[in-house]
Write a structure and sequence with these properties.
15% strand; eight-stranded mixed sheet; 2-enoyl-CoA Hydratase, Chain A, domain 1; single chain; 2 domains; 14 helices
Length: 329
């Protein structure tokens, strides 16, 4: 039984729909704690402890058997750590770099240079934003062509100065709007993917939430691809697949299972290389722990390429992607 309290207090609006029993227990705990603080309640410590243990046990049981559709919902949780959180906690002397030198800057994809574990590097990642204003500013992490061209510019710089690239992926997909298509969305994604594959420096990609479609692949075609336990990586969203295959968005759960979008399935297929376990209740409940674990995984992955020549790095990346699916019967 898990007896430790949940590190982050969550409002009722932040509980997922399948977490309703836990939300009710947490509400009772909050009421008892307020009564105890106000001195209006009798000795309620024993009751609070009992309810806390019950809540944690329910959380443990729930998260030990999440199906792909529920894990999709966890991957999309608004309180999961964002690109800005990872940079703030893991990177020193970070200098953001903006613009694609063609059209403008895209806030959905962030990037810059900094020091990770005392090593200079280039960072690229999707930013969804936390508040309503931030989400609108960052277009919910869905980039337009200038975002991918900015990523290409940063990768060019990384290659020139021999700096490893760290990519943090969290997007539902590239922005499908008319303006993005008019400015060459498909071409920008294709060129960005190609630039990942031709980098002469190591590139480590971490799927921290959603890894949606070409919008994710464009900055995730790396030497090592790592996923958080409750993240997803897919060619299309479950809802999109359901609308095409089953002619109904209500079949999203079935589509999520069929598409093999969770880390364990993708590991078996050779699409990813490592899974980072999340603490009980998911990354949104334990952001500091998850960020530290991601940092350790990136550090370990980068050490595997220390001293490797550019040709060997490119060859390893090429062979990695060519091997996907070849061992299947």
């Amino acid at each position: 039984m898990i007896s430790a309290p949940i590190p982050i207090a969550m409002s009722s609006s932040n509980f997922l729909d399948f977490e309703k029993p836990i939300a009710e227990l947490e509400k009772k705990i909050d009421e008892l704690m307020k009564a105890a603080s106000a001195g209006t309640g009798a000795n309620v410590r024993a009751e609070i402890t009992k309810l806390r243990e019950k809540s944690n046990k329910a959380l443990e049981d729930l998260y030990s058997s999440l199906d792909p559709w529920r894990r999709t919902k966890v991957a999309r949780h608004q309180d999961r750590p964002h690109f800005s959180d990872y940079v703030e906690a893991l990177v020193k002397d970070y200098v953001p770099l903006c613009g694609d030198r063609v059209f403008g800057d895209d806030e959905a994809i962030q990037g810059g240079i900094g020091r990770f574990r005392k090593q200079s590097c280039v960072l690229i990642g999707h930013e969804k934003g936390k508040t309503t204003d931030e989400r609108l500013k960052h277009n919910f992490g869905m980039a337009r062509p200038e975002g991918y061209r900015k990523a290409i510019r940063l990768m060019d710089m990384a290659d020139k100065f021999r700096l490893p690239v760290i990519s943090l992926v969290d997007t539902a997909g590239a922005y499908p709007g008319l303006d993005a298509e008019a400015r060459g969305q498909a071409e920008a994604i294709a060129r960005c993917t190609d630039r990942c594959l031709t980098l002469g420096v190591p590139m480590i990609a971490v799927i921290t939430g959603e890894g949606g479609s070409g919008g994710a692949v464009a900055i995730a075609s790396a030497n090592k691809v790592i996923m958080l336990e409750n993240s997803i990586y897919s060619v299309i969203s479950p809802e999109g697949a359901a609308s095409i295959l089953y002619r109904s968005n209500e079949k999203a759960k079935e589509a999520a299972v069929a598409m093999k979008i969770v880390p364990e399935d993708l590991m078996a297929l050779g699409v990813i290389d490592e899974i980072i376990k999340e603490p009980l209740g998911g990354a949104h409940r334990h952001p500091a722990t998850v960020i530290e674990n991601v940092g350790k995984a990136i550090e370990k992955a980068l050490k595997g390429f220390a001293g490797m020549e550019s040709a060997a790095i490119i060859r390893q990346r090429r062979e990695r992607f060519l091997a996907i699916g070849r061992s299947l019967g």
